[in-house]
Amino acid sequence: MTASPLLRRGFTLLEVVVSMGILALIGAITFETIASALDTRDVLEEEDEANQSARVALDRLRRDLRLAYLTSSTTAVNTYVTEFVGKSNDPDSLWFTTLSHHRMYRESRECDQTEVTYWTEDDPTMSGAKVLLRREAPRIDNEPEKGGLIAPIAYHLKEVNYRYINPKTNTWLDEWDSTGVDQANMLPRAVQIALVFLVQDADDPSKIVERPYATTVILHYADRLTLDTSTSSDSTGAANSN
Description:
This protein is an alpha+beta fold. The chain has helices at residues 5-8, 13-66, 233-241; strands at 84-87, 93-98, 114-122, 130-137, 149-165, 172-173, 176-177, 190-200, 208-218. It has one domain. The protein is 28% helix and 29% strand. Strands 1, 2, 3, 4, 5, 6, 7, 8 and 9 form a 9-stranded antiparallel sheet that branches.
């Protein structure tokens, strides 16, 4: 018994070529879809990382600044030095003494007093960006801006800006110096913090966009704002608008 000619018939060369073309087209579409989904995932992950970094950095700054303090015993013999100094360096830098230190080891010769410095350096992971660094020295000495352990707080920063409100004049200032004449041994009532991160654009991953984050911190040990009606309207307006 011989097989029917219809049963022995296979694919023609044209049918094979058309089938392979269809499979290649489906594969290309599938690859493009997967690649686009992976790019979107990477962008969203970077966006989430920027949000997390901003929260961590702002929380750390908020905690340190809220408990900033200055000692009134500036003329005592063998006393330590306390400062609150903020420089407008673009990006800005800041160092001060605070009561935010956590003792990690029992019976260690440490307390809640500490020296803290915040500044930026070039980011090794992104060209043109900055990394925010924090230095903490658990023992206060005569050099509040030196010594201690250094740790990175946030990467991919474009800008770090601080502003300070003077409790006597109710005005915002770009710099603060408790060792100078105008703010001698005085804390600002509040500090504005503005961070600008660089992240990939969700619509076009080849582009870098800016993501700003900001907060205002009230210092517990600072003098209250002066509610003087004789203060000029310009100064009051500047304080209220910020």
